[in-house]
Structures are given as C-alpha cells and as structure tokens.
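I am writing to request your help with a piece of structural work I have in hand. Here, with my thanks, is the record as I have it:
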Amino acid sequence: MRALRRFRLNVLWSTRRRPLSTTTNFSLSKNNLPSLAEAKYVTELLNHDPSQDPIIPSYRVLDELGNLLTTKQEYHLDPHAVVEMYKTMAEVEAIDHIFMQSQRHGRISFYMQNSGEEGLQVGSAAALSERDHIFSQYRELGVFLWRGFDMQQVAHQCFSNVHDLGKGRQMPMHFGSHKLNMYTISSPLATQLPQASGVAYVLKRRRENACVACYFGDGAASEGDFHAALNFAATLECPVIFFCRNNGWAISTPTDEQYRGDGILSRAAGYGMRGIRVDGNDMLAVFEATKAARNYAVTQSRPIIIEAMTYRRGHHSSSDDSNSYRETEELQWWRDNNDPVSRVRRYLESQQLWDSDQEADLRQSMKKKVKKCMSSAERAQKPPVEALFTDVYAEMPKRLEEQQQDLKRHLKKYASNYDTKDFHVSP
C-alpha cells in the first residue's frame, strides 16, 4: 500500500488551509535577479538540504465534503455560473463512461479518460478569456467543452469522420479548434510547452490583452522541452500560464520515481518564476488560482506556474491497464474521499442551488445526449481520400500531386479490393 500512503500525502498538501501563495517573495525586476556582481559571500560553507524546506501548501476553497472554507476570494463566481460548471463536469463524466465502453466494444479505436480531474479542467477553463490561446496535452476534455467544443464535435473527432475538424488525421481525443484558439493536441509529451512560450511571445510583441494557457502532466515535466519552455518564457518575459496536472502517475510511473523535490512547483524559483499550488479537486479554488495567474500574466507580461494536485482515477488510456500497477483500494479511497464532482454537487446542495431531482434529470439527459451524438458520428462518412494530401502546403508540390494521381489510379484499377463507399466524395 506504498502508493496509497504516498497519495494520501498529496491530500495533506492540499488540505493546508493557508492563503494563496507564491514560490517567491522577491521582486521579479531585472535588478533583483542574481548575478555575479550582486552575489553575497559567506565564510561558512553551506550545504543546503531542500528536504528541510517547508512543503508548499495548496490553496483550497471547499473541503472534501463541499463545505465552504473561506469567503475571502478575490474572484467570485455567480452561483448560476457554478451550476453551469457543474453541468459541464457531469458532461465529462457521461462522455468518459460511454465512450470508454464504446472503445471496448470496438466502435472507436482509442480513448483517454478524465476521471478525477474534471474540477481542474472546468475550473481553469472558466477563468480564462476567449481571447486566450490554449495548448492542451490530452486529458483536458472539460476545457474543450467549456470553451465551446461541443459533444457532437467530440464524437465526430473520435470517429474520425468527414465532420471531424482534423479530417480524420489524428488519434481520438486529439482535438483542436482554430475558432476557439485551441491548438491541436499532439501525442508526443511536452511538445506543446515550447510552442506555448513562442505564441505567448507573439502575444507580447503584438501587445494583445491575452495570455497562453499550457496544460501538461507531471510526467511531461520530466521531458527536456519542459526546461526549454520555462526558461524561454522566463527570460523573454512571456504571458503564459504553465498549468501542471499533477495527478500522481505518468502512465505507470508514480511521482516518487519521477522526482525527489517538492512536486513541480518547487522548480519555479529556479527560473525566477512565480507559482501557485492549488487543490486540483476543488473547482472553485482552481478557478480563483487561474484567475489570479491570468491577471498576473497579462498585466505583468510574465510567466507563472500552477500546480494542481489531483489524482488520475482512470487508466492512462484505453491501451493501459492500471490495475497492474496500483491497488483497487487506492482508487476506491480517492473515489470515496476526494471526488471533485461530488464536492461541487454537495456545495450546490448546501446553497440550495441543486437537488436530487435535478441530479437525476441531468444524468439521464446527458446519457441520452452522448448516445445520440455517438450514433450520428458513427453513421457519418469518412473524410475524402484526397484529404490525405491537402492542408500541408499552400500550393501542393508536384511530388504530392503525382502521389495523389498514383493513388487514384490504384484505387480505380483494384476497385474490387477496396470498399470506399463509406468515404465522402469531394464535389
């Protein structure tokens, strides 16, 4: 039960009821950054032991039972907005359950669950502006839904049909939307981080009143791109929020095999960056933390890290079996004691904003909606074969034109060997 004890420690981090904190208390002006000329010298040899440093506390607004712990938030949500955020969390749950079953039945090829992380997804998305640009990893379904990437679009993408914005070229759950300022997800870990720094630099040069929000997991923080991205953002002073979903697992690798420091946030000081640690299972706390981070990034044109302490309750993906590397008791403990969806529901009920009848109606309607969207997406045709060759170059190179013609001749010659009736024919 080593893993269970380890993750209960994460709960202790998130139950520290201290004010919103940053990793540094010094001015981030250039004059105060360390340099050789300004170095301080001592005659006693110091061997700093980071294990003796206090653990950075996690900010929270609601406890595990949905009780309000503080009313001193700087950014308050309208009660009806909280209801809508809760509905989006329930939508994530409904999609997760039915789409994962559909993958097991062979209707879609792949799926990635979001169970246990619904609160940080919706809470952070609600705190951002539609002008902001978003780079996701692959476990941010709630962010997409809140921004306006609706359930039907999710289904189209997972079935890789003709209505998929990516034209069937991506794995399921790898969304993207130019209209919503949401960059297409890519499978390799951490590639989105330096890209986010670059886009944030562009926003700065254009003097736009916007920032970049870049999501990644604790595993991605072990990649080299993590260092490059944060160092670029810090030295170029880019308005970007690096949002780490520390859910305890990088596929099958637990956090105590990834790092020895105090999580991911402890690295912020090394880049001269500010940071916030927040209870990732507390949607209201995540909303406020992200609002504060966005305000700092936009007004100061500086990067900031948010580390949301949470727990991945589902498998890493439909290709993973997490039962092979963690105990079922561990999963049950998190489901029973620290569920972000139940926490918000209990809060709403305590505020007389929700009841059992509304809950039953919501769950039933969501289930019907998911099934309807899946059925529609499954019946749609596949993208046209020509889509294999387009959207890379403004003008198609001659070599691609030749390959396209070769494919057409091949399909025509061996038409009896290929069933193409399900593919859309371009006009």
